[in-house]
Specification:
Pfam families: EFP (PF01132), EFP_N (PF08207), Elong-fact-P_C (PF09285). The longest helix has 4 residues. The protein is 2% helix and 53% strand. It contains 1 helix and 16 strands. Strand 7 and strand 8 form a beta hairpin. The radius of gyration is 22 Å and the shape is globular.
Length: 188
């Protein structure tokens, strides 16, 4: 248990039964008259839904312990993703629902942050950007180059993104894992 006076960004609270909410931002408010309160913006750990919630100052809230560890993606076992803990070398099978959109950017050997609560995996978080190879893209047409247009390109993971016309098959590119945006070519 913690008091609303002790809230910090990133802290995970257990509210409404067993739902886990992460504190995105908080603000202590002391109005001219009336009691002080804490205005918070909370993000649901599993769904990502963001809500505003107000607590009276000093109210007790239940905190949840989230164990975040860097793990290396090893391989696919059927539909499950197998990650290896880099310190203990234990293998962990992760459900595709917990991996979510991170699956679009995972290749063997990538390190990801795996968050667990009471033994169950909540989510898998990748770095903001990853470097992947373009598996296939059509060549850019000569007359299109001045427009700054884009074309579809298939990454080595099978995920499709939009890239500038000058990018070719076999090139390594940097991709934003949150938005699937092309960030630039990687010089080898």
């Amino acid at each position: 248990m913690a008091s609303t006076n002790d809230l910090k960004n990133g802290m995970v609270l257990k509210l409404d039964g067993d739902q886990l909410w992460s504190v995105v931002e908080f603000q202590h408010v002391k109005p001219g008259k009336g009691p002080a309160f804490v205005r918070t913006k909370l993000k649901h750990v599993l769904s990502g839904k963001v809500v505003d919630k107000t607590f009276n100052a000093g109210t007790k809230v239940e905190t949840a312990t989230i164990d975040r560890r860097d793990m290396q993606f090893s391989y696919m076992d059927g539909e499950y993703f197998v990650f290896m803990d880099m310190q203990t070398y234990d293998q962990l099978m992760v459900d595709p629902k917990a991996v979510g959109d991170a699956a679009n950017f995972l290749i063997e050997g990538f390190t990801a942050s795996v968050a667990q609560h009471e033994g169950s995996v909540l989510y898998v978080e990748l770095p903001a950007a990853v470097e992947l190879t373009i598996e296939h893209t059509d060549p850019g047409v000569q007359g299109d180059r001045s427009t700054g247009g884009t074309k579809p390109a298939k990454l080595e993971t099978g995920h499709e993104i939009q890239v500038p016309l000058f990018v070719n098959t076999g090139e390594k590119v940097k991709v934003d894992t949150r938005t699937s945006d092309y960030l630039g070519r990687v010089n080898s």
